Description:
The complex is a heterotetramer. By secondary structure, chain A is mainly alpha-helical. Chain A is 74% helix and 0% strand.
Amino acid sequence: MGPLTILSEFPEWINLLIAFCIGIGFGFALEQAGFSSSRKLAGMFYGYDTTVLKVFFTAAIVALAGSQLLSFFGLLNLKLVFVNPYYMNATIIGGIIMGAGFIMGGYCPGTGISALSIGKIDALIFLFGGMVGAFLFAETYPYIQTIAMENYKGPMRIEEWMGISPEIFTLILIIAAVALFWLAEHAEKKFSRTEITTDL
Amino acid sequence: MNKTNYMNPYFAGVLLGLVLLAAMFLSGRGLGASGGIKYTVVALVGAIDKQHAMESAYYSKYFENGESPLKNWLALEVFGMILGGFISGALSHRLKFKIEKSPKISNNKRLLFAFLGGVFFVYGAQLARGCTSGAALSGMAVLSVAGFVTMIAIFGSAYIFAWFFKSLWI
Amino acid sequence: MMDARIKYSVLLVGIGIILAFLPFNAAESFRLKPTELLSKSCSEDIYFSVDQVARFMNNEDSTVQIIDVRSAKQFHECNIPGSINIPFSDLLNPLWQPTLNQKEVKNIFYGNSDQTASYAWTIATGLGYPNNFIMKGGLNEWFETVMNSQFSGEKITPAENARFETRLNARRTFTQINSLPDSLKTRFFNAKMLKESMLDGGCE
Amino acid sequence: MHLYKNLKIVILVIVVLLILVIIRNSDQNIFKREVKTAIEAVQTNSNLITPDQLQKRTNPYLVINLGSGDRQDSIQFQHSVQIPFENLLDKANRQVLNEAEGDLILFSVDVATASKAWVILNQLGYKNVMILTSEENPDELKHKFQPDTTVRLEQDSI
């Protein structure tokens, strides 16, 4: 019955060991997907490579559906799984800033780490910039604290917000994702840039 | 160079989803990456100027329990990521030092924008309390509204900014 | 490439349809098996006497939290000082889950009699929350034993003496706190704020 | 051709999952009802019934005496059966509950036992379970708190 480390009295180091192993899997999956290449990632926004969309949605749906099935079989208590708190203003503003950073740097933090691990120098600089960003945030925190805390909605879940059952919402999400996959593969043909994609 | 192809994206997605599911099942939480960067910074600031770290409204909470900020789930996960990426790169013969960029721009330009991108991305991630992995991906997997809003905001804004930075990539 | 897309699409949609038609919602149901819950319910160890609760209150014992499951109106009239008001109808409110679902302190439920407290106990235990208890007899018993009891008899043993002293102290605190004007009372109760979630996660 | 071979595996996975779901659903020893149904059902005390009301009842019912054998209760009812609380979910007793006609009326000397049994049975999906109680509203405060109007709390103790 999960989550294991919350329900059992494991010592802290086991939890950290699990974190390390999860990290290995995470890094491996990202690299294998091709997320270690900034030009592949940027392809998402110019249409010539839509790997990001495919991997991202498949992964979210597998984890979502998997956790609901584990809960149904009594193996996982979903009430004990962390749900991200929703600070409306901070989430939207932060997301917009992140989008700008994404297209400038070509990475997000996770893919940047994955690219660093195979020796990409631009990823190293990106992560260095990331550290500067985190430092700047900490130093400017007193000035933006109000924005960061505004419109707090708690760990709100989508089914409470929309008033439908989580399983039905999952099905809707899956259908939307399947439609997006179809669209993405058409876009790849339409905006094809063979001079870039053969290079990757 | 004998380079192996990338994995089928859907299969890679299933793999990534299973890793995320394992994190939820084992530790009751999602994945994260920007948090690891933050803890590195917190640890660095703590090592350089402990006084400043203890007084700051932001840093002090990470030093409350007296342990190193790097002895943390997210920090350990990020160390694992580097190893995992390295293993994958080695298996697929992709290990190589290089600057990846469009041939039309100079190395310096690429590195400058990589730096700026990093600054923006992690600053935004701190504000939104998570990045593409911590907030968008893990958030969607637990159906949190924050996850969906983050995902839409990141990708929506990236599509708009993509028009301005077209020359960087194409 | 297209083959792969169709294959994974069929897989995901198939799983999605099964999910959408799952016969019951396990996440909103009891976690314990019926037989487990029944055997816990039969145990006498789930009860604290009013004297024990009076002692917890006097010592401001931080290993327990006393939970009043009556309505907010009744709670305002009088309550055990230091208790938290979680009306029974509000028991499933997500904001209370960090308070109720934790391993650190014992939850002691009380109502006017044993009835609502027993409902609340069974629901909290069934949901898999650890460390739930009931104050046996509820506030009615509290009034009879702690508030109104008089020592009658010739000699008092040391044990009885200690018990009566506990009751006397509890009675005094109970009367004092509940006699406060409403504004002060509210301030006192609001000191017990909602707790932050105990779960870690995200990039925080 | 290749596609159909792949689809076979996918369909196999889905069928296995479906079978597992059906097996899980047929398990009698799990709770399947949403908890909020229990909370809603007791809001108005409509799950309580007094002996008077019971006597006037015309539709069928079965009184379940939750007391254990050695503690014989003085009250006797028509249509009653004794099931000690700890044996409530034994196979034979589940059979009795399943086959009972009409309402199930729970009775115990202490109100706590019947209340706990009520929640368990409600969550197992039994409809029309009621608690027999001699009082209209057993969960009532029978004492009135007498405030001490002379109380002045010192400022520093708040």
